[in-house]
Structure formats: structure tokens, C-alpha cells
């Protein structure tokens, strides 16, 4: 199964792999001439035939030159192809990972996936180009050397087949152990990536809790484990070459001894004796390499299995040509929606909710009741257990997910920014053909003042996750980004939770006009934002329930009734 997968995968690069094989073959063919010529040269030197010796020496230099040129060319093509294949593997793994459902990512370790897309992919490309493509040349050298030995002494015809099973058995025993060790080494290496990544992400917490020593100790622990496991695998792998070399060496001695009677006449023809010895020596090289190919194949098999495990996972459904949304209105309906995360019961049990185009709806409810989950379900980031969600009356499962998601400007609880300039971050979700209106979006998101105060304005680089900005500033950039995308539906998940009250009030004010005609869903408990809502819905016990203005709303809101009125919310108690 794995071999078939590898062949399928390698088929895409047959041109490059063929070129490597041919060059390596040519190199080994020219190399095969060397023992015969060297034998003749030595024989002539002993018998004193100087004239012929000059020609043979020239031929020998020619064979050496050819071998060097072909080996060089093969190495260059190997390096070029390996880099190409690695780049393709990386992109394929990355592309597949970004199309896998969120559920997969929720249950995976990022470090593990990064290891897969980087060093595991490089291992496989190396195996294909440096090892597999050289197998024909190794076989050709072994076969050529064996034939040459046969021609010199036919008695070997009986000796060589006897050696094959001995080789096979020794290799089988070694490689079984190697495969297990390589798998364990791979797991430990992935753990090193995972711990390093998590440590860097948690650096702020590490510093504020002053746990640098504990983190360093934890990292040293996984590094040590990885070192031990890698060493064990390398020892097993390193043993294969010398052990097979030893067997091959013993075999060469055995062959010489077995063919001793024939070679006793060597004094008359020393060229044959030398050629024979050189071919016997030449034979040990490809046999040693072929046996380490076997070991490397065991390691590559582990890598390939892991890659296939991920690459065979089905991508999110809904990526297709059909189900495009051409004239969005922004009507959304949840109909008896039920959804549970894997291994959990809930949080959404039977949620029904209808949102009209252009309506502004606030979702409230206690922590963990399922508000964010509802928004994610609307974006089809997870599949429902039962019920359905519609967009403009069409079941979202019949829509192209990209088309659906492009109708929605989603601002998550934690602003997701990357290490680029403010401008690049703002343009991240923009698909329009005209230049995006940065100024308007920044002004709506109350971000114009602070962005123009940044050292390079829009061109300021904001660091990983926008670390060089404050929490509220990050949220403003994330919000401006959603506005720039100009979608008919805007979804704000606690998007202003870090804003100062003044900024939030100004945002609400500017939204009154700017967001007219758009469907807006937002999760918030902040009165200023709630003031925007046409309706307020709470999520309770996995269901949605509308809250009418009145004492209930006053009870839910974490501020006095009088303060609510200041933001234009009617609690009905006056
Ligand atoms: N990826 C996940 N896998 C498993 N359970 C999850 C996942 N995401 C959320 N949950 C669980 O689902 C429940 C609802 O989470 P959700 O984020 O929707 O709550 P919320 O109402 O938005 O909460 P908050 O007000 O704290 O943001 C919680 O109990 C949470 O533990």
C-alpha cells in the first residue's frame, strides 16, 4: 500500500527521477570499465608491456573523467529535483491542511503539523531523489560487477546466489528494529516542535509568571528525549551499512577462496587477478548502498504513512463551482439546529432564529453557552448534527463555502493579525478589483488617529499577532479589515471588548449610518454596542430566546438602568 502510494507520488516527477537514474547509470557503467582497465594496467606494468600501458592509462583516465562528469551531473540534477519536490510537497501539505475541517485542527497539535510540512516532507523528497532514483545505478553496478566476476571465474555462478538469502535475513532483522526506532524518533522530534511553538506563543505568560526555568527544563526534557531516540535510530541505521559491508567483504573473501583454483594461474595473467579483485571490491559498494536503501525505505515508510494519514483525510466539503451567491441580501435563519463538539454534549441543542436582511441582532448569554459556536456554524466551520441553517433561504450546505464566507465579515473575539504592515493586515480579506478604501474603514473603526500616529502609518509592521499594538488597537484593525471586505453581513464577536468607552460610543454612532442595509450580528454585553441592536437574543440551554425590552433586559445588563438609557437602550422600566 505504502509502496504503491510512493510510486503514485513519484510518478509526477518521473522526468527528473528518470534523468537522475540515467546519469547515475551512465556513471556506474563508466565506473564498471575501471576495474578491467586498472587490472590490465597493473598486469602490463608487471609484464613490462609499456606501449599498451600508455593506451590503457589513457582509457582509464577517460573512464575516470566520464565517471566524474556523470556523477557531477547526477548530483546537480538530484539537488535541483530534490529542492523542487520538497517545495511541491510543502505546498501540497500546507494547502491540504488549510482545507481540512476545523475539527481536525482543534484536535491536532500545530507543532506536529509544522513538522510534517517541513522536515518530514524534506525527508521524503531526499529519499526519492538521493536514494530511490539511484537504485537502478546500484543494481547496474552490482549486476555488471557480478557478470564481470562470472566471466573471469564461472565458479562464482554457484557462490553468489547462496549469499543473497544471508543478506536478506540480516537486513530484515535490522530494518524491523529501525522502522520502530525511526517512528519513535519522529514522534519525539514533532514534540520538540510543538513545545517550542507553544513556549514562544506563551512567552508573555512565561515571563509574567516567571516560569522561564520550568519552561527551559521542559524543553530540555523533550530535546533530550528526541536526541536519545534519534541517536538510537541513527545507530541502527548506521549499523546497516557496515554490517552489510562486512557480509559483502566476507563474501568477497569467500568468492576469492572459492575461485582460488582458477586463479592459481594468475602469474601468467595477472591482469585477470587484479580485475577480479577490483570487481569484487566494486561489488561491495552498491551492495552496501542497496542495503542502506532498505533501511532508508523503512524510515521513509514511516514518514509516508504519516503524510498519507493526513493527506487522505477528506477536505471540508462545499468547495465547488456550484452554489455561488451572486446577489446577497443577508437573510439568515437557524432552524432547529443541533450541534455538539466531538466527545461533548452540546452546546447547541435546538436553536431556531431568523434574522432579516439589514437587521442588527445582538447575541448575549453566559460564558460558554454557545454564542460563538452559533456564529461558526453560520459560517459552516462545523457541520450540524441536525437542523439546518439558511442564507437568503438557501441551505448553506448547498452553497460554495468560500462564496458563503465572503458574504460575512467575521471579527473574532481574539483579533487574528499577522506579522506584516497595517496595510497588509487590512487588505487580508479583500477580494475586490478596485483599491480598498482604507481611510473610510479606519475612520469607522476609530483607528485613523492611532494608525497615523504609528511610526510609518499604514506601512508600520505590527509584529507577530500584532504584538506591537495594544489589545484595543488590534481589535480596531481587525474590525476595519472586516469593513474593508465590504460584505453584506457583519459578525462581531466581542469585537469591541477592549475598546475604551469613548471609542466604542463613537464607533456605535458612526455605525448607525454606515451599517444601514447590512445584516449585523454581534456578541457583546457592553451597553454601548447593545444600543445598536434592533433585537437582543440570548442563548440558554442550547436554545435561542428573544429578550423583549423590559425588566429582564435590565437584569441581564451588567449596568444600572439609567446608564443604559444614556446609550439609547430602552429597558422598559421607566
Ligand atoms: N473547539 C472546541 N472543541 C470542543 N469544545 C468546544 C470548542 N469550542 C468551544 N467549545 C465548548 O463549547 C461551549 C460553547 O463555546 P462558545 O465559544 O460557543 O461559548 P460562548 O458562548 O461564545 O462563550 P464566551 O462568552 O465565553 O465567549 C463551551 O462549553 C466550550 O467549552
TrEMBL record:
The chain crosses the membrane at residues 54-77, 132-152, 158-176, 236-261, 273-294. GO terms for molecular function: ABC-type oligopeptide transporter activity; ATP binding; ATP hydrolysis activity. This is ABC transporter ATP-binding protein. It comes from Aurantiacibacter zhengii. The keyword Ribonucleoprotein does not apply. CDD domains: ABC_6TM_exporters. It is a multi-pass membrane protein. SUPFAM superfamilies: ABC transporter transmembrane region (SSF90123), P-loop containing nucleoside triphosphate hydrolases (SSF52540).
Amino acid at each position: 500500500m505504502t509502496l504503491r502510494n510512493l510510486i503514485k507520488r513519484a510518478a509526477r516527477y518521473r522526468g527528473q527521477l528518470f534523468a537522475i537514474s540515467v546519469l547515475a547509470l551512465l556513471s556506474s557503467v563508466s565506473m564498471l570499465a575501471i576495474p578491467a582497465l586498472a587490472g590490465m594496467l597493473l598486469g602490463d606494468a608487471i609484464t613490462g608491456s609499456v606501449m599498451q600501458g600508455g593506451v590503457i592509462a589513457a582509457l582509464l583516465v577517460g573512464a575516470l573523467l566520464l565517471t566524474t562528469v556523470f556523477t557531477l551531473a547526477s548530483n546537480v540534477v538530484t539537488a535541483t529535483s530534490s529542492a523542487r519536490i520538497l517545495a511541491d510537497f510543502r505546498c501540497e501539505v500546507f494547502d491540504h491542511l488549510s482545507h481540512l475541517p476545523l475539527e481536525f485542527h482543534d484536535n491536532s497539535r500545530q507543532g506536529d503539523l509544522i513538522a510534517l510540512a517541513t522536515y518530514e516532507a524534506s525527508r521524503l523528497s531526499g529519499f526519492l531523489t538521493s536514494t530511490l532514483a539511484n537504485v537502478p545505478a546500484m543494481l547496474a553496478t552490482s549486476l555488471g560487477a557480478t557478470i564481470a566476476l562470472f566471466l573471469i571465474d564461472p565458479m562464482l555462478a554457484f557462490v553468489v546466489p547462496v549469499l543473497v538469502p544471508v543478506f536478506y535475513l540480516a537486513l530484515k532483522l535490522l530494518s524491523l528494529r529501525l522502522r520502530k526506532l525511526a517512528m519513535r524518533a519522529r514522534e519525539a522530534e514533532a514534540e520538540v516542535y510543538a513545545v517550542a511553538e507553544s513556549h514562544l506563543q506563551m512567552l508573555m505568560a512565561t515571563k509574567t509568571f516567571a516560569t522561564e526555568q520550568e519552561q527551559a527544563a521542559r524543553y530540555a526534557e523533550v530535546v533530550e528525549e528526541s536526541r536519545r531516540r534519534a541517536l538510537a535510530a541513527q545507530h541502527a541505521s548506521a549499523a546497516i551499512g557496515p554490517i552489510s559491508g562486512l557480509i559483502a567483504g566476507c563474501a568477497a573473501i569467500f568468492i576469492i577462496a572459492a575461485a582460488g583454483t582458477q586463479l592459481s594461474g594468475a602469474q601468467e595473467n595477472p591482469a585477470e587477478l587484479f580485475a577480479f579483485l577490483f570487481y569484487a571490491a566494486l561489488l561491495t559498494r552498491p551492495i552496501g548502498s542497496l542495503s542502506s536503501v532498505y533501511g532508508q525505505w523503512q524510515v521513509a515508510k514511516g514518514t509516508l504513512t504519516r503524510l498519507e494519514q493526513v493527506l487522505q483525510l477528506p477536505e471540508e466539503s462545499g468547495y465547488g463551482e456550484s452554489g455561488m451567491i451572486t446577489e446577497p441580501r443577508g437573510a439568515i435563519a437557524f432552524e432547529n439546529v443541533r450541534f455538539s463538539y466531538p466527545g461533548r454534549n452540546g452546546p447547541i441543542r435546538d436553536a431556531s432564529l431568523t434574522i432579516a436582511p439589514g437587521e442588527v441582532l445582538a447575541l448575549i448569554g453566559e460564558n460558554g453557552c454557545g454564542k460563538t459556536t452559533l456564529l461558526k456554524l453560520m459560517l459552516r466551520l462545523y457541520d450540524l448534527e441536525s437542523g439546518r441553517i439558511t442564507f437568503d433561504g438557501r441551505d448553506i450546505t448547498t452553497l460554495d463555502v468560500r462564496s458563503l464566507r465572503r458574504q460575512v465579515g467575521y471579527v473574532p473575539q481574539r483579533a487574528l493579525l499577522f506579522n506584516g504592515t497595517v496595510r497588509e493586515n487590512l487588505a487580508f480579506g479583500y477580494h475586490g478589483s478596485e483599491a480598498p478604501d482604507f481611510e473610510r474603514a479606519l475612520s469607522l473603526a476609530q483607528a485613523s488617529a492611532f494608525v497615523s500616529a504609528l511610526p510609518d502609518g499604514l506601512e508600520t509592521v505590527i509584529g507577530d499577532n500584532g504584538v506591537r499594538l495594544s489589545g484595543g488597537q488590534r481589535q480596531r484593525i481587525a474590525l476595519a479589515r472586516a469593513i474593508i471586505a465590504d460584505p453584506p453581513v457583519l459578525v462581531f464577536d466581542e469585537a469591541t471588548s477592549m475598546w475604551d468607552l469613548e471609542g466604542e460610543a463613537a464607533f456605535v454612532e458612526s455605525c448607525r449610518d454606515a451599517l444601514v442595509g447590512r445584516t449585523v450580528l454581534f456578541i457583546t454585553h457592553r451597553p454601548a454596542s447593545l444600543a445598536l441592536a434592533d433585537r437582543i437574543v440570548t442563548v440558554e440551554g442550547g436554545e435561542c430566546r428573544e429578550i423583549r425590552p423590559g425588566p429582564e433586559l435590565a437584569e441581564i445588563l451588567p449596568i444600572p438602568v439609567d446608564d443604559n438609557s444614556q446609550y439609547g437602550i430602552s429597558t422598559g422600566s421607566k
